[in-house]
Amino acid sequence: MTGQFALTDRQQQILWATVRHYIATAEPVGSKSLVDDYNLSVSSATIRSGMGLLEKAGMLYQPHTSAGRVPSDFGYRVYVDYLMTPSDTLADQAQRLFTERLNWETWSLEAVLRGAAQILSTLSGYITLISLPQLHTASLRHLQLLQVDPGQVMLIVVTDAYQTQSMLMSVPSPDDDGEDGLDPDILDRELQILSNFLNSQLRGKAIADLAALDWGELDRQFQRYADSLKTLFVDLAQRLEQPLMSPMAISGLAEVLRQPEFTELQQIQSLVQLLEEEQEQLFPLIFEPSERPGGDRRVNVRIGSENPLEPIRSCTLVSATYRRGSQAVGSLSLLGPTRMTYDGAITMVQAAADYLSHQLSLMDS
């Protein structure tokens, strides 16, 4: 530890033990508790002196003058970045439950993500947030052209995340003899043939790339659709160009509200409103990459006052993105009190993100 984080080995041990004890008990920590419960090999007076120095450094504070000390947000930050030892036990347990309980073959992707959220919230005791893949990163799973009115066809696009977009297009007349167009039955058959052809050619391609395809390769009988299809895909790609807040699977609210940190009704109402009605405010936070020491964990940890949103300024948000190939497409987070079991939460989030990334890669193979 260097600079403002410079602590002696003894001070590091005292801070580590204080954080661990407070996480376990939710009670202010005194020197006697550390002597009784941790093998620090020093006297109670030495521990009190060390706790006093940590308080002056802003890593601990006393909620009451006669009480023991409690870790500050800064104290938790030093613990997470420098003192914490990752715990693989819960990560391994989460991986095993994912494998046993999530059915990628028959469930929709949304159902899989909601199942994963329930598993994580049960294991951790915290709120789990998993966003569905972003539409602007989506690839084509299926498309269908349907006749809806004379001369009007609807293009329905289903992404690999089972999200749907629909757009209308006009169908040019097949000839110039003044007729209104094809017989509806003939048009239906032609649209089905064209849909099958396009699915065979385009399935798995990124929607953002469809606008740049060479539509001149369409069979001659479908050439009159080429300009309309190209225009639709250009519009669709532009519509999805900017990241949008995708639906989010949320689980574990009831469990976390039983924690002693959540006793004020107004605080609970603000948190529930954020999760249910203002999820778009969370979007910039849960997709932010880690720039902290230990960023190789690929997990971002926002502790207490580091969160810009008032409803979660007494919480910790642990987030990671999951990927499809090299591209981040969704996010996974645990939200709980700052008195969080960081070693388990961080490794669970990373393990879950790795699991989802691996499964999505299998869908492309």
UniProtKB/TrEMBL annotation:
Annotated Pfam families: HrcA
The keyword ATP-binding appears for this protein: no
Heat-inducible transcription repressor HrcA C-terminal domain residues: 110-346
Top-rank taxon: Bacteria
Keywords from the named record: Repressor, Stress response, Transcription, Transcription regulation
Role summary: Negative regulator of class I heat shock genes (grpE-dnaK-dnaJ and groELS operons). Prevents heat-shock induction of these operons.
HAMAP family on file: HrcA
UniProt record similarity statement: Belongs to the HrcA family.
NCBIfam families associated with the record: hrcA
Protein name, per record: Heat-inducible transcription repressor HrcA
Organism: Phormidium yuhuli AB48
